[in-house]
């Protein structure tokens, strides 16, 4: 039943006359009550009222700023290097929100230089001078010459059947596009430069200058595009001093920054290069730990070269955020998923040094190196994580005692499984021990490096994607499940042996690298051009996956070439830091 205004069922003050009477009566009583109180009581009441007013104002201003967040669509646009990145209020609100909720360093987009002075000439001159000092004279022995030939064979196949596309399908003599940015060219260029291959380097440079465009209406993976394309071009810039590479990198970097249009310091995983939009991965709500924490070397180099600090600031905020929230349950070992909307780790996620986490640990260390060892917490977080790795994950097999790094499934259950990807840590640990970390790190590096070599003990001599280890006496130490037996010609084991050889001078690492190279030649080479990933490393009746990954040129051949060189002062590790994709970038003093 609906009540009318004059309904007798309503309380008295719901009629005008009665309400006026009631208020007058209350006011008179209140005045009378107050006049009969002491001064002290009156002061107390006044103070309480003022405090209540203050609280009300606070609450209402908080409400207002969160309401403002939903009105971002019709705002003025912010231009960064001639490109629209954020709607203005969206940017301001996000900056405020990041400061309020996440307390990361405010990234002041207003500080950005105008497009006119976006590339600072003094920085470019510096890079040009730097590049002039770097001379690559080509191979000095037969093994290096063989690796150069292999690189040329892969280049030839790519050129014949896939030029301008992302990757070669060497068996079907066709191509595959993932980002549609000529991935093999940009990822492989700096290897051609390092090998002294002037013709291939010139072809790549010409294509990047005249054909490469990022006006692509497709979603690309923010991390992969950063480490392969941006990293490749930034390395080429620093190795040659050619400012065209920097200009292209700025263009790509501005587009990729869209990933940071998230409500937390954690970027989204996928970016549309044309529309400059970003989303979570299609397969789930979370971003991978390794992906969000493995872009910082590249963006720092871009910022330092271009004079635009935004790339470095936004990407470094990710590291700062993770440092701040910490991974205390496992003393510095983090779960593999983190959410770009909340900025929080997914509870109960697997802890691993393999896929989805690996290079988080690598970039803690390498950022410390890149910034001239000036940021102590990077070193501390890395050291703490390595101690925890030894405690929770580092185990040995039986009966031969191969040392490996296993996983904690759901953050709890130990699994003696190691991805080939984990072999990178042999390199990082050995470099760490030469930069102030304990000798124990070198011991672990050598043991893991050896286990990675054992993983190659297969009929083809190639390494599998994943190995499992036996921890009970009496059985085989290492076994490969059929579904894990494929080989993408990944670089990590060879990368580890390269660092170990540089730091120990033990020639066994060169021998291991040479054996792996010969296996690639024997079982992965496609006569018409290129090399193919294989289906099962245990079968010499090889079946091909018909794909040649860009990192074969960007990393695997580069590390082989450097490992097998007589001159181990090429690209000295106190001047250059290798990105996770094997692209050398300069080390700064800050
Ligand atoms: C490369 O793209 C990078 O090394 C990345 O960090 C993970 N692994 C692949 C090659 O295996």
Automatic annotation (TrEMBL):
User: A single GO molecular function, which one?
Assistant: calcium ion binding
The UniProt annotation places Ca(2+) binding at 580
* Cofactor section: Ca(2+)
Localization per Swiss-Prot or TrEMBL? Endoplasmic reticulum membrane
Q: Which residues form the active site?
A: 224 (proton donor), 358, 465 (proton donor), 492
Pathway annotation from the record: Protein modification; protein glycosylation
A Pfam family found in this protein is Glyco_hydro_47
From the UniProt record, give one GO term of the biological process aspect: response to endoplasmic reticulum stress
| Residue pairs linked by disulfide bridges in the UniProt entry | 423-452
Q: What's this chain's function? A: Involved in glycoprotein quality control targeting of misfolded glycoproteins for degradation. It primarily trims a single alpha-1,2-linked mannose residue from Man(9)GlcNAc(2) to produce Man(8)GlcNAc(2), but at high enzyme concentrations, as found in the ER quality control compartment (ERQC), it further trims the carbohydrates to Man(5-6)GlcNAc(2).
The record's family statement is:
Belongs to the glycosyl hydrolase 47 family.
Name the record gives this protein: alpha-1,2-Mannosidase
């Amino acid at each position: 039943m609906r009540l009318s205004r004059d309904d007798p069922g309503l309380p008295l003050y719901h009629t005008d006359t009665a309400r006026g009477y009631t208020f007058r009566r209350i006011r008179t009583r209140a005045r009378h009550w107050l006049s009969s109180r002491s001064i002290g009581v009156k002061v107390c009441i006044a103070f309480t009222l003022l405090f209540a007013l203050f609280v009300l104002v606070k609450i209402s201003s908080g409400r207002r700023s969160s309401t403002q967040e939903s009105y971002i669509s019709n705002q003025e646009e912010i231009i960064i290097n001639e490109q629209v990145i954020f709607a203005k209020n969206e940017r301001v609100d996000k900056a405020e929100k990041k400061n309020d909720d996440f307390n990361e360093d405010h990234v002041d987009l207003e500080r950005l230089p105008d497009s006119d002075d976006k590339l600072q000439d003094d920085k470019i001159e510096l890079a040009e001078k730097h590049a002039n000092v770097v001379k690559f004279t080509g191979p000095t022995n037969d093994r290096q010459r063989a690796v150069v030939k292999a690189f040329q064979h892969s280049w030839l196949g790519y050129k014949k059947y896939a030029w301008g596309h992302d990757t070669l399908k060497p068996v079907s003599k066709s191509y595959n596009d993932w980002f549609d940015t000529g991935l093999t060219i940009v990822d492989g260029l700096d290897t051609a430069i390092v090998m002294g291959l002037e013709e291939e380097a010139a072809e790549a440079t010409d294509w990047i200058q005249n054909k490469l465009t990022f006006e692509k209406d497709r979603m690309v993976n923010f991390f992969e595009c950063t480490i392969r394309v941006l990293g490749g071009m930034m390395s080429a810039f620093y190795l040659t001093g050619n400012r065209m590479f920097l200009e292209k990198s700025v263009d790509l970097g501005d587009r990729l920054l869209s990933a940071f249009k998230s409500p937390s310091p954690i970027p989204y995983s996928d970016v549309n290069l044309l529309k400059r939009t970003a989303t979570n991965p299609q397969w789930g709500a979370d971003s991978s730990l390794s992906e969000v924490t493995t872009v910082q070397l590249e963006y720092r180099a871009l910022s330092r070269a271009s004079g635009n600090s935004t790339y470095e600031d936004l990407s470094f905020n990710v590291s700062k955020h993770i440092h701040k929230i910490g991974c205390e349950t496992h003393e510095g070992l983090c779960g593999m998923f983190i959410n770009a909307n909340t900025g929080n780790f997914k509870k109960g996620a697997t802890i691993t040094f393999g896929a989805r986490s690996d290079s988080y640990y690598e970039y803690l260390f390498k950022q410390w190196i890149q910034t001239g060892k000036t940021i102590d917490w990077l070193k501390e977080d890395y050291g703490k994580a390595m101690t925890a790795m030894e405690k929770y994950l580092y185990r040995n097999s039986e009966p031969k005692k191969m040392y490996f790094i296993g996983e904690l499934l759901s953050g709890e259950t130990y699994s003696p499984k190691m991805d080939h990807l984990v072999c990178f840590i042999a390199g990082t640990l050995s470099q760490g021990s030469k930069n102030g970390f304990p000798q124990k790190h070198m011991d672990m590096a050598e043991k893991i490096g050896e286990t990675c070599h054992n993983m190659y003990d297969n009929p083809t001599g190639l390494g599998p994607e994943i190995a499992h280890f036996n921890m009970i006496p009496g059985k085989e130490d290492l076994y490969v499940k059929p579904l894990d037996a494929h080989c993408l010609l990944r670089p990590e084991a060879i990368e580890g042996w390269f660092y170990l050889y540089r730091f120990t001078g033990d020639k066994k690492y060169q021998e291991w690298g040479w054996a792996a190279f010969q296996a690639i030649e024997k079982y992965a080479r496609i006569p018409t051009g290129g090399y193919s990933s294989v289906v099962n490393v245990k079968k010499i009746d090889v079946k091909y996956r018909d794909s040649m990954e860009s990192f074969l040129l960007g990393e695997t051949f580069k590390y082989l070439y450097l490992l097998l060189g007589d001159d181990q002062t090429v690209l000295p590790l106190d001047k250059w830091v290798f990105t996770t994709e094997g692209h050398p970038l300069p080390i700064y003093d800050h």
